[in-house]
Amino acid sequence: MSGSLLAELVEICGPGAARVARSDDRVAGRHADYVAAPATSNAVARLMRLASERGLGVRPRGSGSKIDWGTRPGRLDIVIDTVRLHGMWDHDGSSAIVAAGTPVEAVQAALARHGRRLAIDPPSPGATIGGVLAVNESGPLRHRFGSPAGQAVSVALVDPAGELVDLAEWESPAPGVITSAVLPVEDLPAERRWVVRPVSTPTEVNDLTTRIVAQEFGLSAVEVDMPAVGAGSFAMLLEGTAGFVAAGAGRLARELGPLATIRTEAPEWWGSYPFRPSDVALRLRVRSRDLHAVGFVLRDAVGAAVAVRGSVGAGVVHAVLPRGLSPARIGDIVTGLEQVLMARRGRAVIVTAPPDLAERIPMAEPEDLF
């Protein structure tokens, strides 16, 4: 059967576009049998119908930057590589159609030649449009523009039965393989400035966030970086015309006091995660005014300071748990956080963990990331 299945995959995807999986073709530690790289939505549909008829487990893959996020697949027979679902069209107006396997960086570079951009900035290196939408991955620009799921005008996918579906909204995930999306496009800002100030406690971050967000600064992003050891950093991004940005940055710096600096370049940590694939990382979603309380609860639960980074103004940050914690201890920490967050209309989920831990702790389900 294995030879027959590979032949069918080649017949669907074309010569050289399907193969036996290599040792690194894994999802959360589970090894795939085959990798197929379809070039069209119809080919994706044929693959999904084949998998449905045979009872095979399928997982799509873009760049692979988030392939291990969330729950481990119960079965993994075929990885559908979206690398050949590539391209962008109809981008002359207020939106663009982008194929799922297209890297976000490539889209931004192409749009920049016309003075345009997508208002998404995922932290994952090499992130593709499909991968960003699949886990609702957002970066600093979430503060002003919202999450990618909220921005999407429509999403095209192939469902598990092999049917092509067009969804008018993407506020929650749907099973299947994303093939393309219609996303809003906007003009590139003429100027950008970051106003940065050192911070040392969650309470200080809360005070600054509350004070700044309540005022009319027109901020594109409000971010915080609080390492487990050492001083932290509070940073805001202003975008727009040269006059607007210069005036706003000056006002912000005066509001934040003599420690604030105005920069033409982002801080080194900006737009990146505080965790590595070998870490246990939590995504915390809570109202910005409650983040400081959650930070203290997390520190008390762990028994030590925890690295936290993310969009404090939008109420979405990531935290890194210390290494060496047992699965039971990790579960207790998450349960304790959930109890605190429930009253604050927030969530705490584990987005990534080493494979040996991921199968023994409560990992995020797709809907938990939306």
TrEMBL record:
Residues 27-206 form the FAD-binding PCMH-type domain. It holds the Pfam family FAD_binding_4. Signal peptide: none annotated. InterPro entries: FAD-bd_PCMH, FAD-bd_PCMH-like_sf, FAD-bd_PCMH_sub2, Oxid_FAD_bind_N. GO terms for molecular function: FAD binding. It comes from the Bacteria. Transmembrane segments: none annotated. PANTHER family: D-LACTATE DEHYDROGENASE (PTHR11748), GLYCOLATE OXIDASE SUBUNIT GLCE (PTHR11748:SF103). This is Glycolate oxidase FAD binding subunit. It comes from Actinoplanes philippinensis.
